[in-house]
Structure formats: C-alpha cells, structure tokens
C-alpha cells in the first residue's frame, strides 16, 4: 500500500477594502447606546471614576503645595 496524495481545497474568506458596510452597525445609534450603558451602570461608573479623579486631584494639589513650599 503506497501513499497517494490527497488534494485539499482551502477556502479563504476576506473582506474587500472597498466595501466597508460591515462596520456601520457599530456606529449606529452610538449616543443612545452610550446613554443606555451609563444609565444602567451609573453606580459602577461612579465607583470607578471617583477614586481615579480623587487620586489625580490629590496628586496635583500635593505637587502644587510642594512647589509653593520651596518658593521662599
């Protein structure tokens, strides 16, 4: 029994660079989608952003006080 070569057919799927209708679904009703996500998860948004904004504000305040301390 010898080995016989088997022909395989490969299927290649690709998008045409000239046809970009596939991406339109992502941008459709974008403000409405953002509003819906924020209104559903507003408490999580606050709990995420409050420490970040607080830390940033504290760092800016501390840096400004340090600059003023060495002024005189």
Automatic annotation (TrEMBL):
<keyword id="KW-0999">Mitochondrion inner membrane</keyword>
<dbReference type="Pfam" id="PF10890">
    <property type="entry name" value="Cyt_b-c1_8"/>
</dbReference>
<dbReference type="GO" id="GO:0045275">
    <property type="term" value="C:respiratory chain complex III"/>
</dbReference>
<keyword id="KW-0812">Transmembrane</keyword>
<comment type="similarity">
    <text>Belongs to the UQCRQ/QCR8 family.</text>
</comment>
<keyword id="KW-1133">Transmembrane helix</keyword>
<keyword id="KW-0472">Membrane</keyword>
<dbReference type="GO" id="GO:0005743">
    <property type="term" value="C:mitochondrial inner membrane"/>
</dbReference>
<keyword id="KW-0249">Electron transport</keyword>
<protein>
    <recommendedName>
        <fullName>Cytochrome b-c1 complex subunit 8</fullName>
    </recommendedName>
</protein>
<dbReference type="InterPro" id="IPR036642">
    <property type="entry name" value="Cyt_bc1_su8_sf"/>
</dbReference>
<keyword id="KW-0813">Transport</keyword>
<dbReference type="GO" id="GO:0006122">
    <property type="term" value="P:mitochondrial electron transport, ubiquinol to cytochrome c"/>
</dbReference>
<dbReference type="InterPro" id="IPR020101">
    <property type="entry name" value="Cyt_b-c1_8-plants"/>
</dbReference>
<keyword id="KW-0496">Mitochondrion</keyword>
<keyword id="KW-0679">Respiratory chain</keyword>
């Amino acid at each position: 029994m010898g080995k016989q070569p088997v022909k395989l057919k490969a299927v290649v799927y690709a998008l045409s660079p000239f046809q970009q209708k596939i991406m339109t679904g992502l941008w459709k009703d974008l403000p409405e989608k953002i509003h819906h996500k924020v209104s559903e998860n507003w408490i999580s948004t606050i709990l995420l952003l409050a420490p970040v904004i607080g830390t940033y504000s504290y760092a800016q305040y501390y840096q400004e006080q340090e600059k003023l301390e060495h002024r005189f």
